[in-house]
Design a protein that fits this description.
This protein is globular. The longest helix has 21 residues. It is 62% helix and 6% strand. Strands 1-2 form a two-stranded antiparallel ribbon. By secondary structure, the protein is mainly α. It has a single domain, classed as Winged helix-like DNA-binding domain superfamily/Winged helix DNA-binding domain (Arc Repressor Mutant, subunit A), CATH 1.10.10.10. This is Multiple antibiotic resistance protein MarR. One of its GO terms (molecular function) is DNA binding. Pfam families: MarR (PF01047). Keywords: DNA-binding, Transcription, Transcription regulation.
Length: 161
């Protein structure tokens, strides 16, 4: 069966997302948001013993994994405004975790890199993130987790076109 062969029809979607039957607590968007917030809170607690915040941990992971190499990349990946990212990066730079470097060919672009201290801290984060995820997904099968991952990717792709 192809991924689209069981796709919900337009009329089914209209029925599923009927404003007359909307109940916030059952809304898929609300539940995704609640799940995200719950995970973020748990990660915040887990990384606090490393003396960083969840936002700082996310930045370190994004930079170390190559998902973000500029301030603009980081803002896009974290869905955060440039002002917040700039303040966050300033605190991280003062702590000696990251370095911002202007490009010679385009002075508007700031490249981000980790310092040795940033690399050392980033190396500890996968364990903290995985510990939190394992706790929150206790009782889920590997197949359920892969299905959820695929569904979330589809939600994201549906919004990027």
């Amino acid at each position: 069966m192809s991924p689209d062969s069981s796709a919900t029809s337009s009329s089914e979607l209209n029925e599923l997302f009927d404003p007359q039957r909307y109940v916030m607590a059952d809304s898929v968007g609300y539940l995704i948001s609640r799940a995200k917030n719950t995970l973020a809170h748990s990660i915040e607690q887990e990384v606090s013993n490393l003396d960083i915040t969840h936002a700082q941990a996310s930045c370190l992971i994004m930079i170390s994994s190559g998902r973000a190499s500029t301030v603009t990349d980081l803002g896009r990946e974290l869905s955060t405004d440039m002002g917040s990212i700039t303040r966050l990066l300033s605190r991280m730079e003062k702590r000696g975790l990251i370095q911002r470097t202007r490009r010679d060919d385009d002075r508007r672009v700031l490249d981000l890199s980790l310092t040795p201290a940033g690399h050392a801290l980033a190396a500890q984060l996968p364990e903290a993130f995985c510990k939190v995820m394992a706790g929150h997904f206790r009782g889920f099968s590997a197949e359920e987790i892969e299905t959820l991952r695929g569904m979330l990717r589809r939600v994201i792709c549906n919004n990027s076109g």
